[in-house]
Known about the structure:
By secondary structure, this protein is an alpha/beta fold. It has helices at residues 13-24, 49-58, 61-65, 114-125, 178-182, 202-211, and strands spanning 2-9, 29-33, 46-47, 77-80, 87-91, 110-111, 131-135, 137-145, 148-155, 161-171, 215-218.
Amino acid sequence: MTRTPVLIVGGGPVGLALAGELGWRGIACTLLEQGDGVITTPKMNEVNIRTMEFCRRWGIAEAVHGCPFPPDYPLDVAFVTSLAGYELGRMRRPPRMSEEPESYSPMRLQVCSQMWFDPILQAFARTFPHVVLRYHTRLESFEASATGVAAEVVNVNSGRRERIQADYLVGCDGANSLVRRSLGIELNGKTLGYPVHLERGRTCGSLILRRRCGASWCSMPALA
């Protein structure tokens, strides 16, 4: 049986941020993620001000600022009848190179897709020898007691099963969280049950670039 003070389930931005924060504070932890940690379908595109304050404290703010998103590209949101149709209105947002922090924070919102943000958090967490990131590992079940939590996990590649004993277990495993469901905690609302992709193929990408905006909302999707 393996022991760890804190067992984190889920290796997205929330789980990785928690692993990094605990590591920064000198607290040992183990993170489980059933995937390989490579982001092919980002679920986030911007890092908000409060998270950037954490990044500043961790010393990784410059890495986030240095992500590959073009610094001079407008972040406007355009409302259109279709990507090739009429523009109905536009919400102006300046390029990130010209944005300045507000008076209430030394940081500002930063455009940084999850496909860049997650690797930055992974690298930060791995700087601490007492933080362990275990990919291809899925939580199967757990039991809580007065002395902690016993978790059954499996390696999704080899099928090898293992029992991990932890003082604390933290569920960072998303809307379909096994941790949440196992504890009988209901989810308000409902999930779609299928992924939603924002496609930026060669044709769509050229249309968006032509409009010089960060995002386009189609008011008549059937005509898009």
